[in-house]
Each structure stands twice: as structure tokens, then as C-alpha cells.
Design goal:
Elements (H helix, E strand, L loop, with lengths): L1 E9 L2 E2 L21 E7 L9 H12 L1 H16 L1 H15 L7 H4 L3 H13 L9 E2 L4 E3 L2 E3 L4 E2 L3 H5 L43 H18 E4 L13 E2 L5 E2 L6 E4 L2
Antiparallel strand pairs: 1-2, 1-3, 4-7, 5-6, 8-11, 9-10
Helix pairs in contact: 2-5, 2-7, 3-7
Bound molecules: protoporphyrin IX containing FE.
The site of protoporphyrin IX containing FE has 27 residues, from helix 1, helix 2 and helix 7.
Length: 259
């Protein structure tokens, strides 16, 4: 039995493959702007063409900038909101009970830390337009006719800041997620930092675990201040537009060990 998977390509960059653990090979290609490649993948693991290096490259490119940008935005927001920083430090310190490192098991008892990260991903959606999609057939969406082959960009950033969905949409308020079932794993369409459906991010679980662990351990072990006595309100939050939205000026902090 054979399965055919179509992988869209954009600007010469391989669109990452969702079935990264499967024996699927991606073809190197110089195509640009919506050129499509068809992969042939058989269940017995044979491949008809392609290079496994492209898959590894997809995983690296999909998983590095995105995670580091999220941590940088989270820390920036915490610096700008010292009362939220205090609250999250209190939570992690109580759960850690003097241990040298916070582990994944500890994180399960840290709802506020999780809310801080969710709010960071809402306000600073790392891939604001997700990844380009393409209609595989003629389709009607909300009264619009899309022809087969139309490239579709999903504005995850705008959805996450839509004032008709979110109260105080432009403000950093982790509390909004404390008594809410809204998650960012693709089932709640008001929050889609990892996309949704078959082409949603396959690294979501890994990314969330890493982000939670890194942020928890950073705020557990250190107090942070801006260099040269700069005030939190002065922190420049300008975004540098790109596939991954980072801070224009990288965040510089002075850490001081808490104990
Ligand atoms: C905060 C971290 C991350 C964010 C915000 C993020 C976000 C996204 C988004 C929005 C997409 C496109 C989904 C769509 O268009 O529906 C995507 C795809 C993808 N991501 Fe992530 N990602 C992150 C981390 C990771 C990590 C850690 C990995 C791998 C270890 C990874 C691997 C991939 C791959 C391979 C795809 C392509 C899936 C496909 O095209 O079928 N991502 N990611």
C-alpha cells in the first residue's frame, strides 16, 4: 500500500514534514513561491527520491529560533511586569522546595508559570503567519471561493490579539488563562501559535516542555535586572519582522543568584 504526501514549498525553503519520525524523504529543490513536490512514501520504508538531511534541517529550523524567541519574550514581559515576576518566582520556589533543579514533574504543579508562557505565546506569536498553506482542491471558506493551488496565510497574530475575543487584548495578563480551558495545541481556534490540524506543529509538546523547564529554572535561580540601572518601562519591545518574530534589540539582563 502506498501513500502520497504533498509538501508545499515556499521561497526555496523546504516546508517541514509532519511525519518526521516516519521514513519519509524530502527532495532538495530550488522551487520558489508555491511550487509543489510530491513525495512517495511506502509503508515498507523504501523511498523513491529525496534526502533525509532536509528533514533534520526542518526540525532544526522549526525548533530553534521559535523556542529561544519565546523565552526571550517571556523574560521581557516578566521584567516589564515585576509583580508577575514575583508571583511566578513564588510559585516555582514553593514547588521546588530547595532542590537544585526544577524537573518536568514539578512543572505540573505550576499553573501560573504555564499561564505566563501561554500569555507570552498569545501576545508574541513566534510564527505570526504560521507556515504557508495551499488549497489542495477548490474550496469555499466563509463565503470565499478558493481555487485549488491558492496559497493561504493564516494570521495567527491577529487572531491572538482580536479584541472581540480577548479582553484587554494587547495587555500581558497571564491570569486570563488560570480558570480557562483554552489551550494552544490546535483545538482552540482563538489561540493557534502552533497551528492546527494535520500540518500543525509536530514539536508542540517538546517545545512547551522545554520552554516551561527553561523559564522555571531561570526565574527560580536568578533575579534579573536591566543593565545600567535602566527602568523596566524603558525596555524596547519593538519586534523584528521575519518568519520568526524576535525582539529588535536582543534582551540584555544582569542575573543575580537568588540563593
Ligand atoms: C515555541 C516553539 C514553536 C512554535 C511557536 C512553533 C510553531 C509552528 C507553527 C505555527 C507551525 C505551522 C503550523 C501550521 O501552519 O498549521 C509549525 C510547524 C512545524 N514545526 Fe513548529 N513550532 C515550535 C517548535 C518546534 C519544535 C521544537 C520543532 C521540532 C523539534 C518544530 C518542528 C516543526 C515542524 C517539522 C513543522 C512543520 C509541520 C508540517 O509542515 O507539517 N517546531 N511550528
Amino acid at each position: 500500500m502506498k501513500v502520497e504526501i504533498e509538501i508545499p514549498k515556499c521561497c526555496g525553503v523546504e516546508a517541514p514534514v509532519m511525519v518526521i519520525m516516519a521514513p519519509v524523504m524530502v527532495v532538495d529543490d530550488t522551487g520558489c513561491g508555491g511550487v509543489r513536490q510530491t513525495l512517495r512514501w511506502s509503508f515498507d520504508g523504501t523511498r523513491s527520491f529525496g534526502s533525509g538531511r532536509a528533514i533534520v534541517s526542518d526540525v532544526f529550523s522549526g525548533g530553534t529560533d521559535t523556542t529561544s524567541a519565546s523565552i526571550e519574550w517571556a523574560l521581557s514581559e516578566l521584567i516589564r511586569h515585576p509583580h508577575i515576576m514575583k508571583k511566578v518566582q513564588k510559585e516555582v520556589t514553593e514547588i521546588a522546595k530547595g532542590k537544585s533543579m526544577i524537573t518536568e514533574d514539578d512543572i505540573q504543579d505550576m499553573p501560573y508559570l504555564k499561564a505566563v508562557l501561554k500569555e507570552t505565546m498569545r501576545l508574541h506569536t513566534p510564527l505570526p503567519l504560521l507556515v504557508p498553506h495551499e488549497a489542495m482542491d477548490d474550496v469555499e471558506v466563509m463565503g470565499y471561493d478558493l481555487k485549488k493551488g491558492t496559497q493561504v496565510m493564516i494570521n495567527g497574530w491577529a487572531i491572538a490579539r482580536d479584541p472581540t475575543i480577548w479582553e484587554d487584548a494587547d495587555m500581558f495578563k497571564p491570569e486570563r488563562f488560570l480558570n480557562s480551558c483554552v489551550d494552544f495545541k490546535g483545538f482552540h481556534y482563538e489561540l493557534l501559535p502552533f497551528g492546527s490540524g494535520r500540518r500543525g506543529c509536530p514539536g508542540v509538546q517538546f517545545a512547551v516542555s522545554i520552554n516551561e523547564l527553561v523559564l522555571a529554572n531561570l526565574v527560580y535561580k536568578y533575579d534579573f535586572a536591566l543593565p545600567n540601572g535602566a527602568r523596566a518601562e524603558e525596555l524596547d519591545m519593538t519586534e523584528l519582522v521575519g518568519l520568526v518574530v524576535r525582539k529588535k534589540d536582543p534582551l540584555l539582563l544582569v542575573p543575580a543568584a537568588r540563593f
